[in-house]
Design brief:
The protein is an alpha/beta fold and about 400 residues long. The protein is built from 14 helices and 14 strands. About 40% of the residues are buried.
Length: about 400
Amino acid sequence: MRKLQLRETAMTRWHTLPLLQSHVTPRRRVPARQRERVKSRGCFRPWRFPGDQGMIEVDQLTVRYDDEKALDGLSLRLRPGEFVLVTGPSGCGKSTLARALAGLIPHASSARMTGRVVVNGLDTRQHPLPILAGHVGLVFQNPATQLFCLRVEEEVAFGPRNLGLPAKEVARRVEWALAAAGLEHLRGRRVNALSDGEKQRLAIASILAMGPRILVLDEPTSNLDLAGARQVLATLERLRREAGTTVVIVEHKTGEIANACRTTRRAMGGPEPPASVREVGRLADRVLLLEKGRLVADGPPEEVFARREMLRRLGVRHPAARPQSDWADRIATGEDDPFAKEPLVELEGVAAGYGESLVLDGLDLSIGRGEFVALVGDNGSGKTTLARLLAGLLKPRRGR
């Protein structure tokens, strides 16, 4: 197998977005001196939530889609400031639980719900979504479903503006959220010109700017490379530690979280032990394991992941990294053949981009018949652009 590495470039793709929210306030440029003052304060708000702010109580929650139960009599209690990982096989009800915690079920769903969900003392059935949005922030797996402004800075500012906050407070929150998500250099970029990973971080930043006591994230690292996942997890950990935010992550691939936790630990000045249950435990206080809408395990990571037989039965991969010797001999690798046939795909000096920006410039690539090629690179490096070129959906500006 051959691996093709792309360097990070300015822009990766463009697709049409309808012009929504014509009433959005024009983008306001924050002076550089003010941005530096925000940076000097560490970019993390001093909002420490008192009392039971961040408390979640779920009592006998049952959710049905038509005649099928997604959650079945689920009960749990999360304490303020906890970092909780919710995992389980596909279809076990993880995403349904995330939507119920945010109040989308029952207010914005055809699903039928019985039982109670209480966040910060508010019963989600008795309070509308605009009220609940100030307490619980939900980041979807697909960020495109919750981004609608034209530019990055406008997207982050939209939530605080609709909360009726003063302009200075909106500007402060925008600066903090952009810095927390690592998007300061993209503040003026059009949203539909961002890569998938950048959109994911923008969705997180737009929620952070609203200052919710509880953050619920549905597979937040699914579209991110390792560096992006590390940055997101480090941000969430600092929110929990410095602001007392309750964090709930829904994740199916616990091994990816473990690997990101390992590099997060290194980035925060700690040692770098092997990716394992200990790595998850450094961020998560608890792991909730779901099966067919029921809670089958609840406890510290080392306790839940010690139940290997249960994990195997449910098809949940243990987060401990497998040594290379376990799988290296299972991968058949080819050998270069100097007498191979002519290339099936060939690019020479190709340049391509969107608008005035180039994403690929001077790219030379040759792929032979029957080759197995892996296209890898950081978010924003041009992988999607190259794929669109190869599929004929984008024409090169130069080269052939």
